[in-house]
Amino acid sequence: MAKEGTAHPRQMVCLYLVVYMTIATYDVLTYCFDSREHISIYTLHGEPLVFQHFDGPFYPTLKLLHKYPFVLPKVGIDRGAIRFLLAGAHMMCPGMTSKGGYLPAEDVALPAETPVAIFAEGKEHAVGMGITKMGTEEMKKLNKGVGVETVHYLGDDLWAIQKL
């Protein structure tokens, strides 16, 4: 686990990708979905790979995450939570602590504010990504409330962009 104030090794992969893309191609585009959302999308040959909301952390797109699933740590949701995620809802703790859900073991527990890939029961690829709102051990203990704030999911506006 990374020390507080330092980047997680998986986040460094995203950072290296952004640096490489910026130096190698200067192929960067800022695109706003609407007046409330200020999204910077970093592309390579027009394909969105990494995005950033305002000056926040860099996130890989789901399409990049499907190619390189090891970039972010994983959490899993049960079948009942899939429809809520695909509607843009945040992931509640019971959907991740139930029989079909998944949270990392205690020895590799994730702290709050960690970017994660959200996998669904019975699905091969990530269906979303988000930020943990509490540590995974706390999610298991409390088993209520929002566990992961959804940032990007299958079917959202960013997913719909094929090329810029």
Describe the protein's architecture and organization.
The chain has 2 domains: 9-67, no CATH class; 71-153, Sulfate adenylyltransferase, CATH 3.10.400. It is 28% helix and 29% strand. The chain is built from 6 helices and 9 strands. One of its GO terms (cellular component) is cytoplasm. It comes from Hermanssonia centrifuga. Keywords: Cytoplasm, Membrane, Transmembrane, Transmembrane helix. Its main location: cytoplasm.
Q: Which segments are poorly predicted (pLDDT under 50) over 5 or more consecutive residues?
A: 1-7
The number of helical runs is 6
Record the strand order, biggest sheet: 5-7-8-9-6
Give the overall average pLDDT: 83
Seen as an oligomer or otherwise, the chain set is: single chain
Percent range for β-strand residues: 25-35%
Ends apart, CA distance between termini: 36 Å
Main pleated-sheet profile: 5 strands, mixed
Helix content: 25-40%
Secondary-structure arrangement, i.e. CATH architecture of the largest domain: Roll
The 3D shape can be described as globular
Total strand segments: 9
Alpha carbon gyration radius: 16 Å
Please write the string of helix (H) and strand (E) elements.
HEEEEHEHEHEEHEH
Tell me the structural class. Answer: alpha+beta
Which fold name corresponds to the CATH topology of the largest domain? Sulfate adenylyltransferase
Count of individual domains: 2
Features:
164 residues, 5-stranded mixed beta sheet, 6 helices, 29% strand, disordered N terminus, globular, 2 domains
Write the layout of secondary structure elements.
Blueprint: H1 9-25, E1 28-31, E2 39-44, E3 47-53, E4 58-60, H2 62-67, E5 74-77, H3 79-85, E6 91-92, H4 93-97, E7 115-120, E8 126-132, H5 136-142, E9 146-153, H6 157-160
Parallel strand pairs: 5-7
Antiparallel strand pairs: 1-2, 2-3, 3-4, 6-9, 7-8, 8-9
